[in-house]
Design a protein that fits this description.
Elements lengths: L1 H12 L7 E7 L5 E4 L4 E4 L4 E6 L4 E6 L7 E7 L2 E7 L14 H8 L8 E5 L11 E3 L18 E4 L4 E5 L45 H23 L11 H22 L10 H5 L1 H50 L2 H8 L1
Parallel strand pairs: 1-11
Antiparallel strand pairs: 1-4, 2-3, 2-5, 5-6, 6-7, 7-10, 8-9, 8-11
Helix pairs in contact: 3-4, 3-6, 4-6
Protein name: Thaumatin-like protein
InterPro entries: Osmotin/thaumatin-like_sf, Thaumatin
Keywords: Membrane, Signal, Transmembrane, Transmembrane helix
Length: 345
C-alpha cells in the first residue's frame, strides 16, 4: 500500500542527510487521551502537551488508544522528506482489502476508522499545496484517507519541519462554549423608610361678633328704668321738704334728663369692631354682604330705640315739671287767712 510507495521513493531518491523532526502532541479534549505510538500508551491529560523527536528513518503512527478503530496520524521519513497523513480507513474482523470508498470499506470490514477529531499542522515550510495543515473534525472528513487507494491524501514537507498534532482541535464553524461562571448573588435591596407626612394645620376662622339686639334693648330698658326711678323720687318727696323750688332748678333738672338720655343713647351704640377679614370672608363675598346688611339693619333698630328713649325721657321730664308746679300751687292754696290770724295773735 502507501508504505510500499514511500519505500520505493526512498530507494529512487537515495539517502539524504539526517535531520530531526519534532512533534508536539496537544490535548484539547474534555478528557485524558491515552497517546499510543504502536508500542505503548502514554496518558496525555486534558490541556496538556508532550514533545517527541522522530528519528530520520521513522515510520509509524499515533492515535488515541490502542484499539485499531481510531483516527490515525501517520508519519514516514523517506527521500529527504517527511510524509504525513490522517487516516480514517475502516477496520474490523477483516481487513479493508481493496474497497473503493469509505462506505464500501465500512460494509466490508463491519467497522469504522474514526474516534476523535485530529489536526496535523506543519510549523514551517507551508506552501498551501503538499505541505499544509490537515484537519479532520468528523467521520468522513475530506482531508483524511478514507480507503486504501486514496493516495491523494498523502502530503509531505521537507525533513526538519516541526509539527503540532492536536486532539480535538477547535472547530471555527461551531460556537465556542463560554466558560462556566458563577453569577454573583443578587444583593437584597434595603427598603427605604417611608416618610411620615406632616399634617397641614387647618386655619381657625374667627367669627366677627355681631351685636345682639336683645342686649341693646336690655341696656336701653335699664337706662329708662333708672331715669324713671330718679324722677319718681323727686315727685314723691315728703311735704316737710322745701317745695319752693325755683324755675331755674326745674330747667336744670330737665337739662340733666336730656344729658342722661343722650348718654344712654351713646352707650347703647355698639363700638365698631375692627377685625381682619378671615379666609372664609375673603373667599365668600356674598357672606360678607349679608353680614353688612344685617349690621346696618341692627344699627337702624338701635337708632330708632334711642330716639324713643329720648322722647320718653322728655315726656317724663314734662310730667315732673307739671307735678312740681301743681304741688307748689296746692301748697300755696293751703295757706288760709285763719292760719294768718293765728299767727298774728
Amino acid at each position: 500500500m502507501k508504505w510500499l510507495g514511500l519505500c520505493v521513493a526512498s530507494v529512487v531518491l537515495g539517502a539524504s542527510p539526517a535531520q530531526a523532526t519534532n512533534i508536539v502532541f496537544k490535548n484539547l479534549c474534555s478528557e485524558t487521551i491515552p497517546l499510543y505510538d504502536n508500542v505503548k500508551e502514554e496518558p496525555l491529560a486534558k490541556g496538556a502537551e508532550i514533545r517527541r523527536t522522530l528519528p530520520d528513518d521513522f515510520k509509524g503512527m499515533f492515535r488515541s488508544g490502542s484499539k485499531p478503530q481510531a483516527t490515525l496520524g501517520e508519519f514516514t521519513s523517506a527521500g529527504g522528506k517527511l510524509w504525513y497523513d490522517i487516516s480514517i480507513i475502516p477496520t474490523g474482523p477483516v481487513g479493508p482489502d481493496l474497497c473503493g470508498s469509505l462506505q464500501l470499506c465500512k460494509e466490508h470490514t463491519g467497522g469504522v476508522g474514526y474516534n476523535v477529531p485530529m489536526q496535523i499542522a506543519p510549523q514551517s515550510n507551508i506552501n498551501g499545496a503538499n505541505c499544509r495543515v490537515l484537519t479532520c473534525y468528523e467521520d468522513g472528513c475530506p482531508d483524511a484517507y478514507q480507503y486504501p487507494k486514496d493516495d491523494t491524501k498523502t502530503h509531505d514537507c521537507p525533513l526538519g519541519t516541526d509539527f503540532v498534532l492536536t486532539f480535538c482541535p477547535v472547530d471555527p464553524s461551531k460556537p465556542t462554549p463560554a466558560p462556566a461562571t458563577t453569577a454573583p448573588p443578587t444583593p437584597t435591596p434595603t427598603p427605604s423608610p417611608t416618610p411620615t407626612p406632616t399634617p397641614t394645620p387647618t386655619p381657625t376662622v374667627t367669627s366677627t361678633p355681631t351685636p345682639s339686639a336683645s342686649n341693646n334693648a336690655s341696656q336701653l330698658d335699664a337706662t329708662n328704668s333708672g331715669s324713671h326711678s330718679g324722677n319718681g323720687t323727686s315727685v314723691e318727696s315728703p311735704a316737710k321738704e322745701d317745695r319752693s323750688l325755683p324755675d331755674s332748678d326745674i330747667d336744670t333738672t330737665v337739662s340733666k334728663l336730656h344729658a342722661n338720655s343722650a348718654a344712654s343713647a351713646g352707650d347703647s351704640t355698639p363700638s365698631p369692631t375692627t377685625n381682619a377679614p378671615s379666609a372664609s370672608q375673603t373667599d365668600a363675598p356674598s357672606v360678607e354682604a349679608n353680614t353688612k346688611s344685617g349690621q346696618a339693619s341692627q344699627g337702624a333698630t338701635i337708632l330708632v330705640a334711642s330716639l324713643c328713649a329720648i322722647a320718653t325721657a322728655l315726656g317724663v321730664a314734662v310730667v315732673v315739671v307739671v307735678r312740681r308746679k301743681k304741688a307748689l300751687l296746692d301748697e300755696r292754696n293751703q295757706k288760709t287767712p285763719a292760719n294768718l290770724d293765728q299767727s298774728l295773735m
